[in-house]
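Residues determine shape. Take a concrete instance:
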Amino acid sequence: MIFTAKKSNLQGEILIPASKSHTIRAVAIATMAQGRSILRNPLESADARSAFRAAMEFGATIREENGDWIIDGIGGQISKLACFVDVANSGTSLRIFSALASLTNQEITFDGDASIRKRPMTPLLSALSNLGVQVKSQNEKCPFTVKGPMKGGQTRVNGISSQFLTALLFACPLAEGTSEITVDNLHERPYIEITLDWLRAQGIKFEQKGLDWFRIPGRQKYTAFDRPIPADFSTATFALCAAAITRSEVLIKGLDFADHQGDKKVFDFLQAMGVELEHTSEGVMVRGRPLKGLDIDMNDTPDALPALAVTACFAEGQTKLYNVAQARLKECDRISAITTELKKMGADIEEFEDGLIVRKSKLKGTQVHGYDDHRMVMSLALAGMGAEGLTEVDTAEAVAVTYPGFFNDFVALGAQMQKDN
């Protein structure tokens, strides 16, 4: 699919869909819990469906009712035999469910699409091995097989992706014995806070020293729950940046600023760059204003890198986006990819090891590549909304991973976009 976009003026309101991070965590816990859980208003997307399918492979039963997911969990006992889990493009589902699979004494194999087969797994698989898990893999990437049971003990994990630590934190409470986790090089710390919020809500016992060491007793249990899934700040980034790029007024609805999602910081970044924000009872009114360049530490907000790189093209002076080396380990190398594609549009942009420098640029529409990466596709569509001429973004079907409603929502705001199948 191709999205075409040209210079736009936006106006109106947008309701942000549910969080991918919360939805997948909720599915994982509901799967391993005893009893019936209700996930109210979960994210309906390809990544969330990957977690949905993994839950069923583990033996959970799921039905949908009025937009909610009702999950009868397995009480920590993976019941299906000859288990194979295809996570498609979902790195979060891959990491969390492979750790949970390590709790059983049967072999469970994980695989996914071409992109997922490139995603690193060594830090998690090595950490699981230290806890008594058998791992079979040719290159420590998909496809691989794990076999438990997880016994507990001491392990270390490299936190270059926070998902490695999240996976251990979800699995270790169900292990046979106590686990101690030492964390090196932790990135994306707000995602770990989200994980810990879920564990605390479940009454899981653990000790911690900051986010760098955890001691988790084994033989604990997850319990059924009934709760709404919060809206997604990572998705809200696109409406926020679009309003900034096009100098428009947009009301963003549904967000809870008390949530631990790291990408809520993007609102602070854009405000510091000149965007006017007004918090109301209905939501956040975003008013695009002249932008100025800024130095931004992106470590807690790696998913926002492509959209902020595009936004920086419209800011006076220079913007530096740094401390985000983990952006190279996503669906594609997003540092290299966004640099390459924005240069095609005339951007003054350069990459370095862990980030980008962007100077104000006059973008011109052209054909750009979306890398089968949902955040790249959406960010380049935003670039087209601010550029002169017509921008064509390929692999646009990738938006279904987290935001299937992207096209319809933005057209409703007035975006000059079309799609070609």
